[in-house]
Structures are given as structure tokens and as C-alpha cells.
From TrEMBL:
Similarity comment: Belongs to the saccharopine dehydrogenase family.
Chain ranges of the Saccharopine dehydrogenase NADP binding domain: 11-124
Annotated PANTHER family: SACCHAROPINE DEHYDROGENASE-LIKE OXIDOREDUCTASE (PTHR12286)
Cited InterPro entries: NAD(P)-bd_dom_sf, Saccharopine_DH-like_oxidrdct, Sacchrp_dh_NADP-bd
Coiled coil residues, start to end: none
Organism domain of life: Eukaryota
Source organism per UniProt: Mus musculus
Membrane-traversing stretches: none
Protein name: Saccharopine dehydrogenase-like oxidoreductase
């Protein structure tokens, strides 16, 4: 039930993690390769603004796109703070959740997305969750 008023099409949550960095880089690569008119607004999310900025800077260097940091939103969000999860979910059409282990951290993100009408996908391979 995502609406057009949401500022971001996609939010990569946990962008500072090992996997989240690869996901962030791939989203950036896709967006850069797309025609200007078909690019989607997107953001990275996590609990450390500094780490998120470092991830964007690293991707910018790797992809030869110095302006990347200014083209991508940054959302501060912590699993232990449900209000911050709601706030993230409200801003996105889709949350791509890379914060794991999902057996500890997954459920609050799914809950926030359901309650705010946001689509949610993850990279979970944990049998306990699946
Ligand atoms: N399906 C697969 O093949 C596959 C492969 C690899 C991984 N995975 C899944 O992906 C998950 C992540 O793996 P990873 O290696 O990328 O882990 P990781 O490097 O430890 O990254 C974990 C991420 O979660 C964030 N995080 C932890 N606690 C948080 C909190 N309270 N609030 C907000 N963010 C928090 C970390 O943020 P900070 O940087 O701030 O600590 C970091 O961005 C794994 O648990 C696994 O289930 C699946």
C-alpha cells in the first residue's frame, strides 16, 4: 500500500554491514546506469550516520561517482527504537533489510513495515527464521 508521497522508493537498512555494503553498491550501480528520468530516489539506513556516510563514500570511489553521497538519503534507525523503525518505514515504498541475525533483529522490522504499509524484503538464510 505504498503511496506516492513517500520520499524514497527503496531504503537499504543495515547498509553498513558486510552484506549491506554490497547491496548498497549494487543499488548505486543500477541507479547510475539508469537514464536520469528512470532513476528512483533511495536511501541508506542504520544506527551510525558516520558509518553510512563512509559506505556511500566508498561506493562513490569504487563507482567513480563523487556526487553519490549527495544523491542518496541517510536515515538513522535502530532496531531497539521502534519509533525510528516506524519513521524509516513511513519514508519508503520498500525496505531492503540487511540487518541480521534475523532471528534476533528481524521481527521488529517486519512489524514496522506491516503497520506502515511498506513492502519489505530481506536476505535471510537462517533456518530458525525461515
Ligand atoms: N542469504 C544469504 O546467503 C546470506 C548471506 C550473508 C548474510 N546473510 C544474512 O544477512 C545478515 C547480515 O549479515 P552480515 O554479514 O552483513 O552482518 P554484519 O556485517 O554483522 O552487519 C549487520 C548489520 O546490522 C546492523 N545492526 C546491528 N544491530 C543493529 C541495530 N540494533 N539497529 C540497527 N542496525 C543494526 C549493523 O549496523 P552497525 O554497522 O551499526 O553495527 C550492520 O549494518 C546475516 O545475519 C544473515 O542472516 C544472508
Amino acid at each position: 500500500m505504498a503511496t506516492e508521497q513517500r520520499p524514497f522508493h527503496l531504503v537499504v537498512f543495515g547498509a553498513s554491514g558486510f552484506t549491506g555494503q554490497f547491496v548498497t553498491e549494487e543499488v548505486a550501480r543500477e541507479q547510475i546506469a539508469s537514464e536520469q528520468s528512470s532513476r528512483l530516489p533511495w536511501a541508506v539506513a542504520g544506527r551510525s550516520k558516520e558509518k553510512l556516510q563512509q559506505v556511500l563514500e566508498k561506493a562513490a570511489q569504487k563507482l567513480g561517482r563523487p556526487s553519490l553521497s549527495s544523491e542518496v538519503g541517510v536515515i538513522i534507525c535502530d532496531i531497539s527504537n521502534p519509533a525510528s523503525l516506524d519513521e524509516m518505514a513511513k519514508q519508503a515504498k520498500l525496505v531492503l533489510n540487511c540487518v541480521g541475525p534475523y532471528r534476533f533483529y528481524g521481527e521488529p522490522v517486519v512489524k514496522a513495515c506491516i503497520e506502515n504499509g511498506t513492502s519489505c524484503i530481506d536476505i535471510c538464510g537462517e533456518p530458525q527464521v525461515l
